[in-house]
Amino acid sequence: MIPMPLAEIAQAVNGRLDAVTDDQVAVTAPTVFDSRHVEDGGLFAALDGNRVDGHDFATAAIEKGAVAVLASRPTGTPAIIVEDVVTAMSDLAHAVATRYTGRVLAITGSAGKTSTKDLLTQILSRHGSVVATERSFNNEIGFPHTVLRVEADTDFLVLEMGARGRGHISHLAAIARPQIGAVLGIGSAHIGEFGSREAIAVAKRELVEALDASGIAVLNADDPLVAEMAEYTRAQVLRFGTGPDTDVRATDIALDANARAQFTLRHGDHAVPVTLGVVGEHHLTNALAAATLALSAGVEFTTVAEGLDGARLASGSRMEVTERPDGIMVINDAFNASPESVEAALRSLATIAATERPTVAVLGEMRELGDTAPTLHATIGRQVADLGIGTLITVGGHHAELMATAARDAGSAQVTHVETKDQVLAILTEGLRGRDVVLIKGANSAGLFETAAALAAGH
């Protein structure tokens, strides 16, 4: 964190010091909300959660080296007492962001934020120092947590912005104002909360609306709902996609036998062949977004191309491939699931199936789809049949069962429905043979990433 004395922090968060003997002692390390991750010179945010109360860990945080605790009540330790700790984290992050002089890049969209962030970070790291969102910490807690990790000499601050309603992205952008902002695409994720894709687009465009005239809006020209956001920003607009009227584009697109995208990356007079190291044609969009963001931040084209070539994702459970010693391939894409991301993962599985490897799809229910859930789950079931996936195992309640029924009705022969993930491993262990390819995907709350990890480890 950019160093700040406790007295300044208290002023920034509208708090009062308690049990502090020297208000000029500076916080120099990140602010964290998990006492196990406290660093010397850091600040511990005592969040009052559903299962644990962070105030109970205040003493342990101080013993690990925290300078003070950000708390809503006295803890018997040096503390800054505030009305609401989450709000105080945002206020402190804003104070730190105003002191930061490097580049702030923000990413939003219905899917692909974390993958794009991972790819972008690999590119930017070739050019300078980077602080980026950990995993998918992109909400009102994770966002300030990321900002509070930035240091005075950090070249790039890369921030994911999530939204579950109108005003969420505007709030995050007010904490740390981005100079460059990218919108990846508008899908059906959280459509149950928003009501329509058009309503999702209105919420996502808050990012480009937050950019000032000196900023750069990076927009996916292949998505009409994103492309029209150019009308809502004062910033310069750079477009990426596969069409000719784009600033950064991909041509000569193909997939290798493992469904990894190969393409020619083009920008102006520059053209370089690139092969991604991550499975899935849909990562082409993420790669183009990352390239455009990096170019907007002043990175040379050759550095961008070198950073993308062979690039893999640092965040787990996103088309994460494990080749077991017995020849079975496990594709762990179980971090989350929307109709678009499930369809993309199934297309990748079908591409691998073209090499005559047997395929298995383990699909959990998709969440937050509202009234559209039955139709969308049935559509996924029919896609399994249409793509020729050999075996389908659906996991969950009524909607997962609808998916299984639709697949059977569309001609899939090997379909099994189970209610819990605990039943999946036994079925797979019984039926898998060498060279099988298993895709595991579902909503994060389904916990299928645990199943994928166990299967990849050979359990």
Q: Assess the beta-strand content as a share of residues.
A: 15-25%
Question: What do the pLDDT scores average to?
Answer: 94
**Record field, number of beta strands:** 22
Output the number of helix runs: 17
What's the gyration radius in Å?
23 Å
Annotated CATH topology of the largest domain: UDP-N-acetylmuramoyl-L-alanine:D-glutamate ligase
In CATH, what is the homologous superfamily of the largest domain?
Mur-like, catalytic domain
Q: Kindly, what is the distance between the CA atoms of the first and last residues, rounded to a whole number of angstroms?
A: 41 Å
Task: Profile the largest sheet.
Answer: 9 strands, mixed
The helix/strand class is: alpha/beta
Description of the structure:
By secondary structure, this protein is an alpha/beta fold. It has 3 domains: 4-83, MurE/MurF, N-terminal domain (Udp-n-acetylmuramoylalanyl-d-glutamate--2,6- Diaminopimelate Ligase, Chain: A, domain 1, 3-Layer(aba) Sandwich), CATH 3.40.1390; 100-308, UDP-N-acetylmuramoyl-L-alanine:D-glutamate ligase (3-Layer(aba) Sandwich); 320-456, Protein-Tyrosine Phosphatase, Chain A (Alpha-Beta Complex). The chain contains 17 helices and 22 strands. It has helices at residues 6-12, 58-63, 85-99, 113-124, 142-147, 168-175, 191-194, 197-204, 206-210, 224-227, 283-296, 301-308, 339-353, 373-386, 398-409, 424-431, 448-456; strands at residues 4-5, 16-18, 26-27, 31-32, 43-45, 68-71, 79-81, 103-108, 130-132, 156-160, 180-183, 216-220, 236-241, 248-255, 260-267, 270-279, 320-323, 329-332, 359-364, 391-395, 414-418, 437-441. The strands form 4 sheets. Strands 9-10-8-11-12-13-14-15-16 form a 9-stranded mixed beta sheet. Helix 4 packs across helix 12, helix 11 runs antiparallel to helix 12 (301-308) and helix 13 runs parallel beside helix 14 (373-386). The longest helix is centred in the N-terminal third of the chain and has 15 residues, at 85-99. The chain is globular, with a radius of gyration of 23 Å. The two termini are 41 Å apart. The relative contact order is 0.09. The mean pLDDT is 94.
